[in-house]
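hey m, so remember when u said the tokens were messed up on ur end? i reran from scratch. heres the input so u can diff it against urs
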Amino acid sequence: MPISSVVIRGGRVIDPGQGLDASVDLAIDNGVVAAVGPDVRGRLVLDATGCVVAPGFIDLHSHAQSVAGHRLQAFDGVTTTLELEAGAIPVAVAYSRAGAEGRPLNYGYSASWAAARIEVLAGSRGDGRTATMLSHFADPAWQREASAADEDRIVGLLETELDAGALGIGVLLGYAPGTSPDEYLRVARLAAARGVPTYTHARDLVAFAPNARMDGAEELVRAAGETGAHMHYCHVNSTSLRHVDLVLGLVDRVRREGAVVTTEAYPYGAGMTAIGAAFLAPERLAERGLRPTDIVYMPRNERVRDADDLRQLRAADPGRLCIVHFFDETKAEDAAVIRGLLIHEDTMVASDAIPLSGLGVANDSAWPLPATAATHPRTAGTFARSYRRLVVEGPLSIAEFIRRASLLPAGVLGTATGGAVRKGTLAVGADADVVVFAPAAFRDQATYEASTQPSSGVRHLLVGGELVIQEGSLVLQARPGRPVRKI
């Protein structure tokens, strides 16, 4: 028997894609899975005794696209982290920058509809950075209805980005309430024609905003049915809130009718966004049952005092991040809503991870992270917390959790790349993106007060066969992440 470069020995290998759940060894050579079976030999043997060996988790929704952000997600079991909801323009610049800087995890970008609109309607060209796009979020110019000529230019920009390898189209529709429903359908038709998904932050539900141009959930599923596009419903938790049963019921109905609509959720009662977001205007908070004091302004790490304070913060720096507490996780009723979202059939785990603040460019590679660094706890803890809620405290098996954290997102990614992806499985020949975690110790540690605490329980994590975490410790020099893009 040939000797492999790496062998993971003594673990319980769970691969839902193959229906595999067995105590066998896993061999890795040249960045791919070389063998699965008993007594394989390797030059480097990693002990997985008492651990689960699984395909690395795939996060379809992460804005934490930096070395520091990737490291936090690595401790959460993630091996591929993608900026698909907001996307980037130009994607070539975003890919080039990540490649030049190096990334611990695999990465990729969709074409940003919001950035295309900001360029066409507000006159500001994108530079591939999320922060640049966020700085324009309060500008009403890009939130208005586009003319037919402007729509042509927006769609033209998106076509160019898809030609450059973008993984579909990210649509921040909820941040531009003036957008015509016809424009959204046109974007969906483009995605269908190119055979790629859209990733939508839906428009408001009419239950929140009775004067909305169209109900956000109805609009998304209508686009799926009318165009045949694969519509991915981003963070269905934070855009549906207490109306989630109605939204998921609608999704289930159109799925039965043949539409392709996939969903994701994260296990927290608070969201995070730019304070200049349209739905955080003081006069609109009551639509969601919110008060200014439910918003935590990150730069000063304290709750907004009142409506006047909120107006001033939005005017001064609309791109600054804030935490918005939609649910009280200490209340049984609210906790049940969050759990119900996660348990719903085929709901994927996705973090909506947020870029770290209080961390200069020079410190992006610092580890441990400086005390000034802050983010939403979902950046560090979404997958471990979901495991705790779904498996330890909930009804799902470990295999079903892995399916939702790895196999199902790999299916979306396969559509986005044209079927070229070899992730979400440990089949021979698959990319050797592997997480080895101790099921009794895999726990989220990040809190709203200590948001950058890494999750515990990941013993080893390999990306393309290269160790990023070994024996529970970060491999500081590891930058094995590779771009994922449409072929």
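this time it looks ok to me. The first helix runs from residue 67 to 74. if urs says something different then somethings off w ur setup not the seq
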